[in-house]
User: What shape does this take?
Amino acid sequence: PDLGTEFLERPLANPLMNAAGVWCTLAAQLDALADSEAAAIVTKSCTLVRRDGNPEPRYRALPLGSINSMGLPNEGYLYYLDYAAHHDYDHKPLFVSVSGLSLDDNLTIVAALRDVVLPALLEINLSCPNVPGKAQPGYDFEAMDELLAEVATAYRRPFGVKLPPYFDFAHFDTVAQILNRYEHLAFITCINSVGNALIIDTGQESAVIRPKDGFGGLGGDYVLPTALANVNAFHRRCPTKTIIGCGGVRTGEHVFQHLLAGATLVQVGTALYEEGPGIFQRLARELAELMAHKGYRRIDEFRGRLKTL
Ligand SMILES: O=C(O)c1[nH]c(=O)[nH]c(=O)c1I
Assistant: This one.
């Protein structure tokens, strides 16, 4: 089978890439992704100035996934613009994830990315759940609309958004209606971690991460059904947008399910954190094996074709 995929008219070897934030904070990590089987890579969400992030322990692997409250640790946007300036775009696309702490910060970073005129793709993170005291724009629809209007006006090139999970059809409808009003908004990445979960260690009778009394974003097996629902909900509601699936991907079968639900690319977070960049070779092999078993030669024979009963 051929895992060939097209994203924004660009042919890719396969639909696989990392999720922003995982194995992508430092140049050496990004280089490892560039050298891996991932067909595209995205940077850690960046802010105006470098951040240490939250106190540790701030990440915990779990039998069914992970919980994190990293707190946006990153090297500052100029570090990732510099990385983007040296990336080989003929080899594979590079996305820059931006999560400014204010509208002004976002606009400063977006304008800088526009002005360096690179083929890098902008993914605006609307959904970081772990900055103490900051409500995420993804759950403030008026703030989201204002941010997108300002970014679309300033950036004037195709860009995408990283959304939090939604759990209500009224929210799917409202958010889709906002996103559909922005022509430059070319792709939608669903989902970010399921925010503010609480994992308890029974023996210690304690939370397992330090920040925010142990409340953190949930990833991994726990979130696959919610991720698939959000991919399919926005695939149905935003026919002119490309959907990138993210959440709960650990095997080729999970990649297949995201594609069936309507994703064009599929991002890997928790499983990449645990397994390392070699996971992309395994996922590509498992997806090809599943496609062969089902008699599919190409992804576009089943992508977005989820049946209902
Ligand atoms: O805590 C983080 O750094 C973080 N953690 C997440 O799970 N999602 C995000 O978008 C971010 I910016």
Notes: Residues 3 and 14 are 5 Å apart (CA to CA). The two ends are 28 Å apart (CA to CA). The chain has a mean pLDDT of 98.
